[in-house]
Design goal:
It is built from 13 helices and ten strands. It has about 325 residues and is of the alpha/beta class. It folds into two domains: about 190 residues, Rossmann fold, CATH 3.40.50.300; about 130 residues, Rossmann fold, CATH 3.40.50. The strands form three sheets. It has a five-stranded parallel beta sheet, with helices on both faces. α11 links the parallel β9 and β10. The longest helix has 20 residues.
């Protein structure tokens, strides 16, 4: 069994920009494997918009370029939608279909890269890229939004195109293009380069499972018995939270290297927002890496206080609960 609390990967700035590709969960996805919900035509429309965006390119010695009045400036496409409507699937499909040098990362990963390298080095690291795909673009932090504006404002005029996704809060669904307008207002320097597309639909990750469900101790023991004991990581929520405070979030993926499955026992509410946000990013990495996971303890809807779930980082917490629900559904499916 692997003890995650003994691991503390050393900083490696160069590794931050290496292999910015779809995570294992999205290695096999393509545009033709995306199954739009026929009740929500905007899902199929978004796929068509992405394909058209990429088809407006040609292969040349300089890489991926768009035909836009013969100017080399990069263009942008922004997908705005709720949780679990397939935005990441579409983004990964775009990476697979793109020609030229492309990089796919979450918005939070981009912030960690800029923080680790500094703005000048980060811009240089991506200067030769033809396409950046940024998942879960977040407008809840003015400082991060300003950094992203500066970063993209230097790259896009030089020819780098960008596809970004972001989440509409469940309470904001049905309010038209609320987030798209918010995005364009806050990214003033580059907003004119982005076309916006809304994706509607229910969260597919919530289908067939209640968000409060966690495994019972007996179910967790059965689940663990079916994992590889040599590469299973098992720890309490308390030990995990303490250790994550000692590891920079940019190293969470390396923390999980060689791990085949993770069991977190005794989930408890997290009154400290620093602890809660690190847990959220840890779950993001678990999910992206496609690692099986099991959780026991408090119900999911008790993990984060209402203050957090309706505060500045509401989207992070809602996304985390959505992904935890899917991980638990997958774990429970192996017990039948």
């Amino acid at each position: 069994m692997i003890d995650l609390t003994t691991r503390n990967p050393a900083p490696d700035p160069a590794a931050l920009t290496r292999e910015l590709t779809p995570s294992p969960r999205y290695h096999a996805v393509r545009f033709d494997t995306y199954a739009p919900n026929p009740q929500y035509p905007s899902q199929a429309d978004a796929r068509t918009a992405l394909q058209a965006f990429l088809q407006g390119a040609q292969v040349r010695p300089g890489g991926f370029r768009l035909f836009r009045r013969a100017k080399p400036e990069g263009r942008g496409l922004y997908l705005d939608g709720g949780f679990g409507v397939g935005k990441t699937h579409l983004l990964a499909s775009a990476w697979h279909a793109a020609q030229g040098e492309a990089a796919l990362m979450s918005f939070q990963d981009l912030m960690y890269i800029i923080g680790a390298l500094g703005m000048t080095q980060a811009v240089e690291a991506f200067r030769g890229h033809d396409l950046l795909l940024i998942d879960e673009f977040e407008l809840d932090d003015p400082g991060n939004t300003h950094m992203a504006n500066t970063f993209l404002g230097q790259l896009m005029p030089a020819g780098t195109s960008v596809i970004a996704t972001s989440n509409t809060e469940p309470g904001a669904l049905g309010q038209g293009r609320f987030n798209a307008q918010d995005f364009q207002r806050q990214i003033q320097g580059i907003a004119s380069r982005f076309d916006t597309h809304r994706i509607d639909g229910p969260d597919y990750r919530q289908r067939g499972v209640r968000p409060e469900d966690t495994l019972t101790p007996e179910e967790a023991r059965t689940w663990e018995a079916r994992q590889n004991p040599d590469t299973l990581a098992r720890l309490t929520h308390r030990d995990l939270s303490r250790h994550l405070l000692q590891v920079h979030p940019s190293r969470f993926a390396r923390l999980l290297q060689g791990v085949s499955a993770v069991a977190v026992t005794d989930l408890t509410p997290m009154p400290d927002q620093n602890v809660a946000l690190r847990f959220v990013h840890f779950i993001d990495k678990l999910y992206d890496l496609g690692l099986p996971a099991a959780f026991t303890g408090s119900s999911l809807n008790a993990l984060f206080s209402d203050t957090y779930r309706h505060g500045a980082y509401a989207k992070k917490y809602s996304r985390c609960l959505s992904r935890l629900s899917e991980l638990l559904k997958e774990a429970r499916a192996t017990l039948t």
